[in-house]
Structure formats: C-alpha cells, structure tokens
C-alpha cells in the first residue's frame, strides 16, 4: 500500500517539493509549528507558481527554471 502511494507521489508531488527546496532553500524550515510552517510553504508555492506563469507569458524556454528569479 505504501509503495503504491509513494509511486504515485513520486511523479506528481515529489518533483514539486524538490523544485521548492532548490528555489527557496527550504530543506530545513526556519519556523516551528504546523500552522506557521504550512503557511510558509504555501507562500513559497504561490511565489513559485507566479514565477512559472511569468516565464510562460514571457516565452522562456524552460518556464520551471525560477531559481535565478529568487537570487539564490
């Protein structure tokens, strides 16, 4: 059961988390608590989605490459 669920997450959710960790440096969160950390992660996802959308409308070859936009 666990392997089946992780197999599905591996192609959908895990690549997104990898991109967020790479772009925002969130391998270790600087905040504590579920509410605060979930708000922080959702804010990162929102900023990431805006950056990907901006790359799409400006015609960037790789719209998912947003690390340079966040100066990391």
TrEMBL record:
Domain of life: Archaea
Name by which UniProt lists this protein: Uncharacterized protein
Species in which this protein is naturally found: Candidatus Nitrosotalea okcheonensis
Species lineage: Archaea, Nitrososphaerota, Nitrososphaeria, Nitrosotaleales, Nitrosotaleaceae
């Amino acid at each position: 059961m666990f392997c089946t669920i992780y197999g599905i997450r591996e192609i959908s959710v895990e690549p997104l988390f990898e991109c967020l960790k790479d772009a925002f440096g969130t391998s270790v969160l600087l905040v504590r608590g579920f509410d605060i950390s979930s708000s922080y992660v959702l804010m990162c996802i929102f900023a990431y989605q805006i950056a990907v959308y901006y790359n799409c409308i400006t015609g960037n070859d790789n719209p998912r490459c947003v690390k340079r936009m966040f100066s990391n």
